[in-house]
Amino acid sequence: MASDESDGRDPLFRYDDPIFADERLLEITHLPGPDRIVGRDDQMLRVADALNPAIFGSKPSHLFIFGKTGTGKSLISRSITQRVITEAERDDINVKYAFIDCGEQNTEASIVKTVAQVVNEPERSGVTVPDRGLGTGDYYKRLWDVIDRCTDVTIVILDEIDMLEDDEVLRKLSRAGENRRISDSSIGIVGISNKIDFPDNLSERVKSSLSRDELVFPPYDANQLIDILNKRRDAFHEEVITDEVIPLTAALAAQEHGDARKAIDILRNAGRLAKKRNDARVTEEHVRAAKEKTEADRFSELIEGSPQQAKAILYALTLLTENSTEDEFPTKIIYSQYKQITGRLELDILSERRVQEILQEQNFLNVIQSEREGRGRGRGAHAKHRLLEDPEIVKKVLLRDSRLSMEE
Ligand SMILES: Nc1ncnc2c1ncn2[C@@H]1O[C@H](COP(=O)(O)OP(=O)(O)OP(=O)(O)O)[C@@H](O)[C@H]1O
């Protein structure tokens, strides 16, 4: 195709976006300014309180933040840290931070390496931090040098801290000053988790050595979600979203618990859908379709990479949920349903014990919830399991798998 000579642009591409004025405002990684943050004044004060000493170059308090998904835990930690950095700069205090997703990096060595790489300025420290090739002990050594030479205060934000393979890293980072690993600098840890019972699972060594503040973020109500979405309205061109779009999106996202991540994702997907269909305005219908897509995307992200056997086990639980008024099922019942499925699909049959372990892993990944009767959350053969997502959506995602699609 010839290029358009009138303005020199290649006519193969679209240069106008009829729906979005700035879609980036709806990206999950986008950090909104303080005036766009809604309903978190108390939590912001508490986080600010813990990090406050960093402004003067002193050691901040360690802090654990709990709350369900999409309640603003990462946002508030990043936003307040950013404000601490700006404030500290006025007095030439150098604060740096590393944000680590422990779902992706869960080993001691990879965390220490990443913090060192983020904080390091090689010309200042004279230290290099290679991607591979060093043992954990050597990475620690470099980290201490880098921290001492390149910062006054380092804030380490550990998102999904419950996914850590080994909590020794918390002990070493929190005691670095006392143990004289670092002398001119200090470290503050902010741990984020959606499991409120997470500290019970810390090793005794860490429990006793890591003094910290703790803070819980409650879910948003539908009105707060409306406010959050309204403050991102300028992601769209004026008049593009119809009146019912934001209240409906907020109501749908508040159904399970007030999840701002889901609300923003639905709004963005609704806009994308309108664009794809060449519709001039975003309507209620786009929002409803976007909700389903958003849930399916989230679910596929969660089970992405799960082996076929895990999918077959989830499929067994899905069929049980679909065909029963109950929503919780004991391992034994799931196992017998699973055996029928493996027969039909010609998959190997795992032992009941292994199936129990896989169910436990899925519990950890927040795909299902496992409870041991009468004794709270638990492992063991007596656990009952419940799907955390609408079975219709789970089924759709699972049937995308080549082998499981034979069940259609
Ligand atoms: N109070 C708020 N005001 C404005 N936007 C918000 C607010 N809370 C959350 N958001 C937005 O919602 C999305 C999800 O928030 P965030 O990632 O902070 O949640 P989270 O609690 O850390 O969730 P997860 O546990 O899933 O990581 C982000 O895009 C964030 O900007």
TrEMBL record:
Signal peptide: none annotated. Residues 59-221 form the AAA+ ATPase domain. GO terms for biological process: DNA replication. Keywords: ATP-binding, DNA replication, Nucleotide-binding. It comes from Natronoglomus mannanivorans. It comes from the Archaea. Gene3D superfamilies: 1.10.8.60, P-loop containing nucleotide triphosphate hydrolases, Winged helix-like DNA-binding domain superfamily/Winged helix DNA-binding domain. GO terms for molecular function: ATP binding; ATP hydrolysis activity. It holds the Pfam family Cdc6_lid. This is ORC1-type DNA replication protein. NCBIfam families: orc1/cdc6 family replication initiation protein. Involved in regulation of DNA replication.
